[in-house]
Specification:
Strand content: 35-45%
Distance between the termini: 78 Å
CATH architecture of the largest domain: Sandwich
Shape: flat
Mean pLDDT: 91
CATH superfamily of the largest domain: Immunoglobulins
Low-confidence stretches: 1-19
Structural class: mainly beta
Number of strands: 17
Length: 228
């Protein structure tokens, strides 16, 4: 009788182990980042009804993908003019005339997992009879916003652009320890960088206003960095 019981126990154990082991759910990965196709960077759009176009995203889990299109009136995308969710990589949206816009697209899977947002592109919708258009707001290069840096000097660098490609741009750079910088570090600067002296342990704020040769000005966003 004892032999029979042992045999049953031996054959029962593997079955118990097999039943106890379960397969894990696959990790839900975010969709890939898309590339913006149209409107291209710094484009002057004659028509204010615009067909936005971008590359298709892919999803490692094979999930269905939708796209969140954000169109803003400022480069940091805090003043959103339009947000639209679509399932294809194109959509036509009507906007106001005579406005500078900034747009990006984020892919989202059907489990609401978002990919990394695309780059931000600027464009302008020309108004009827408009001859001169204000430049786009400056785009930060370095140091990146809210970053930490080392050293006693820092090179502030940015990009400028204008949909009037023939315009000449100059820059007024404000820099200091005030959250809203009012100290003019450089005025009418034709290049896109300036070197500043800094101290360890301090946080600095800066912005760049962009002016075209007709006097039209775009007020820049305020950026900051901390010195280690």
């Amino acid at each position: 009788m004892k032999k029979v019981i042992k045999t049953i126990a031996l054959f029962s154990l593997p079955l118990f182990v097999a039943c106890g082991g379960g397969s894990k759910e696959p990790v839900n990965e975010a969709p890939t980042t898309v590339n913006l196709v149209y409107p291209t960077q710094n484009l002057l759009c004659i028509d204010n009804s615009i067909k936005f176009d971008w590359s298709d995203a892919t999803d490692a889990n094979g999930d269905n993908i939708s796209y969140k299109v954000e169109i803003s009136k400022n480069r940091e995308l805090t003043n959103i003019a339009k947000t639209q969710i679509v399932t294809t990589s194109q959509v036509t949206i009507a906007l106001e005339k005579g406005e500078a816009y900034y747009w990006r697209v984020t892919a989202v899977d059907n489990k609401e997992k978002q990919g990394e947002p695309s780059s931000v592109f600027a464009f302008y919708t020309k108004a009827e009879g408009e001859s001169n258009i204000a430049p786009f707001t400056a785009e930060i290069v370095k140091p990146t916003d809210e970053s930490t840096v080392e050293g006693t000097t820092v090179t502030l660098e940015w990009k400028g652009a204008d949909s009037n490609t023939g315009d000449t741009l100059t820059y007024d750079v404000y820099f200091g320890e005030d959250v809203i910088p009012t100290t003019l570090k450089a005025e009418g600067k034709s290049t896109t960088s300036v070197e500043v002296i800094v101290e360890s342990g301090k946080t600095y704020y800066w912005k760049v206003n962009t002016i075209d040769n007709a006097g039209a000005k775009s007020i820049g966003q305020i950026w900051s960095f901390t010195v280690k």
